[in-house]
Amino acid sequence: LFCLSVLQTSCVIPPPSSCSSSLSFPGTVPHGKQGRSHSLSSQSSSHKLPVSRMNGDFTKMAAHIDHNVEASFNIVNEKEKDKKLIQTKMATKVSQWISSRSKLEALFSHPLYNLPRKHLLEDDWLLKLKPKNKGGDSEEEDEEEDSDKSSEDSEWQSDSEEDGYDRANWTRSADTHPAWLRYHLGISRWELYDRNDPSVAEVTQQMATQRILSAVQKSGGTQLKLIMSFPNYGQALLKPMRQERDAETDFNLFYFSDFERHNAEIAAFHLDRVLGFCRIPPVVGRLINITREIRAITTDHKLSRTFFTSPVGNLCFHGQCEYYCSTENPVCGRPQVLEVSLASMLPDLSLAPRRSWRSPWRRSYSRTKLAPWEKNPDYCDTVKQTPPYNQGTRLVDLIDMVILDFLMSNMDRHHYETFEKFGNDTFLLHLDNGRAFGRHSVDEPSILVPLRQCCRIRRSTLMRLRLLSLPGFRLSDVMRESLSQDPLESVAPLLSVQHLSVLDRRLKTILKAVHTCLEHHDDVIHDDLQGYDVNLYRH
Ligand SMILES: Nc1ncnc2c1ncn2[C@@H]1O[C@H](COP(=O)(O)OP(=O)(O)OP(=O)(O)O)[C@@H](O)[C@H]1O
Ligand SMILES: [Mn+2]
């Protein structure tokens, strides 16, 4: 294997892709980000057991149990009753062991979640470190340069330990970078992050625990959001808890007049990852102290002016924004403690501009008007001929997003974004999921309309959905397990049992819709597994 990037000083054999759209064409040399950023390892900290290991363990354990049962039988041969009792005990043990086996680990070890990675060229990375002024890029020179921090790396340095920020001595070497920077440097044309990149777990862990140094309101969008800053210069987008997490959206409310939910932002990140997309920035839950971690440190005067104590003595604020920023719609602590979601910030727009695309299936956002797709059953025929949906993977990317949205009942996907650098050949960012998981008692069939009208789906997506419908990988089970990693789970489950179980129901509906498509059309499958031995990916 060889390594192309001028940045790297050593090469590691690249691991397979952890996310869906980063498929390589068979026969190409895989070239992963681990080959580019030498401090990154392909081992995930949270998923240590590959399934083959677990299967091995299972066989060993089964053999051990068999042996024990046999031995026990010899001793208690004459006592039929005891024999039955032991048999029952052993059977219970085995079933307990099977049920305690991690379905999530098994899922992420499945070949469909470890497809070979697409061959990445320099232009397929969102960001790159500035090239050196001096010629040459040998390892020795890199080290030499790293030690000579006062010259070329000066712009990465900060001596300012005032205000609580860390002293930053970032060089070209990845191990001097904070986790958020390593995560940013890992963003590629086909995925926002690599599921196995340890920096992603580190970013999440740091957002949940690091000291908060600053909190200011984020402009743009309609609801209250804060940008929080951490000592290592990382930042996160905060959305507060505004209603009980299990409160169902009022049936008389339109989709555009509903509060955002912090738990929906968290659960959406997990769902997107479980579906194998990796298109939502890492999100984590946290309990914050409104006085200490917002009011006392904010330099945002517009925000400071909105704090007040409620009649029952809870500390509240409402900020200033287009909707719901009023004394009638406060964000309140108990009495000062508030549940929030923290989403890792994407690279600044000045470094990585993004393009916002209006969804062709956008709702009318009116109480009376219908959107064009609601009036014309053949609407997709037009979309299919309209750039950028007429070539590349844009249409099936949109269908992936529709599947995510139908599962979590998000009707608010009016726009999606892409990184401008990558033009039309890139993944779609699934930002803003705060209005998802609002109702569990009903499903929203209109969210699935693009799939029904277009009848197109990626083969890899369909196969992963089928996998998630099997008892061994059941979507609700892997989601419960994935969410259990979030710190807020210790307060209360992030998704109630009802919200979890509707995931399985909705998954069935999606598979039925695809089945109906397959019965009536012959170009339903976008074959992104062409050239692969599909049997390898069957279950
Ligand atoms: N993790 C992130 N990093 C950087 N920017 C982000 C992130 N998440 C969202 N944004 C940007 O902030 C804008 C507002 O965020 P978001 O859409 O979540 O808020 P909102 O109040 O729900 O907006 P709207 O009312 O328009 O739906 C988004 O359009 C997006 O460009
Ligand atoms: Mn929104």
TrEMBL record:
Pfam families xref list: Fam20C (PF06702)
Active site annotation, chain numbering: D412
Residue span(s) of domain FAM20 C-terminal: 307-522
Residue ranges with Low complexity bias: 37-47
Cofactor(s) listed in the protein's UniProt record: Mn(2+)
Keyword terms of this UniProt record: ATP-binding, Disulfide bond, Glycoprotein, Golgi apparatus, Manganese, Metal-binding, Nucleotide-binding, Signal
GO molecular function: ATP binding; metal ion binding; phosphotransferase activity, alcohol group as acceptor
GO biological process, one term: enamel mineralization
Superkingdom of the source species: Eukaryota
Annotated TM spans: none
Binding positions for Mn(2+) per the UniProt entry: E260, D432
Bias kind Acidic residues: ranges: 138-164
Region (Disordered): 30-49, 130-168
GO cellular component: a single term: Golgi apparatus
InterPro entries to which the protein is assigned, alphabetical: FAM20, FAM20_C
Subcellular location(s) per record: Golgi apparatus
Binding residues annotated for ATP, in chain numbering: Q223, K239, E260, A343, S344, M345, L346, E417, D432
Family as reported in the entry's similarity comment: Belongs to the FAM20 family.
Protein name, as recorded: FAM20 C-terminal domain-containing protein
Species this chain originates from: Oncorhynchus mykiss (Rainbow trout)
Phylogenetic lineage: Eukaryota, Metazoa, Chordata, Craniata, Vertebrata
Gene name, Swiss-Prot/TrEMBL: LOC110486117
